[in-house]
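re the bet — no i am not wrong, look at it urself. input seq straight from the record:
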Amino acid sequence: MLVRLLAAAALAASAGFAPALAGEKAEKNARAEKGDIVDVAASTGSFNTLIAAVRAAGLEETLRGEGPFTVFAPTDEAFAALPPGTLDGLLKPENKQQLVDILTYHVAPGKTKSKDLAGKRLDVATVNGATLAIDATDGVKVNGANVVKADVYADNGVIHVIDSVLMPPADQ
């Protein structure tokens, strides 16, 4: 998992997703009290299902790590919109790898802010090795899911709130 994360981070950095250094220190100081990705997500009250899934998948420590990460975070309502039984099935221990694949499909290495995406269409490598299609030419869509709130900062990255759960390609 760590090797995949590092490889994806290198790929993202080489593709120009490394954050600009200007203003990073001021931004970090402004948000220093917020906590890591998991703490920030938990504090909103909108990601209880996501946090439970992250814990079931054994990814909590990773998302508390140094990062930086860009997380496209589905809300509780997005998880509730999955077909009946889907979430319960994914949370079973025997389906842990499938849950890991889905959750890591929502995470890109590096810190990509909305201003980095504005007006662009691009493919972004995820931690699980697949890519997300981002269209920020009219609002922001990630594989068709709407970004309903952008740029929720954490000490180790940024969260973009989405209205759907993203499913990785079947051929990965």
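see?? The two ends are 15 Å apart (CA to CA). told u. also Residues 2-14 form the longest helix (13 residues). so pay up
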